[in-house]
Design brief:
Layout lengths: L1 H14 L7 H15 L17 H5 L3
Helix pairs in contact: 1-2
């Protein structure tokens, strides 16, 4: 979850670069919400079409 929050904060900062929000502030807000709500969650990967990725589908990529 930490890596997801890091990536989300970085993406938000790039998308809204004129908002004057620091990456640390964005991370703090995301951590405050998601770490409490999603304590033991694992992110389920999806492909570019929004379909769940499986070990088989990952192995078939070249």
């Amino acid at each position: 979850m930490e890596q997801v929050i890091e990536n989300a904060a970085e993406s938000h900062q790039k998308a809204f670069r004129f908002s004057n929000c620091s990456k640390e502030c964005i991370k703090s807000q995301l951590e405050g919400y998601y770490l409490d709500k999603c304590e033991d969650s694992r992110i389920k990967p999806i492909d570019k079409n929004g379909l769940p990725m499986t070990d088989e589908s990952i192995g078939n990529r070249e």
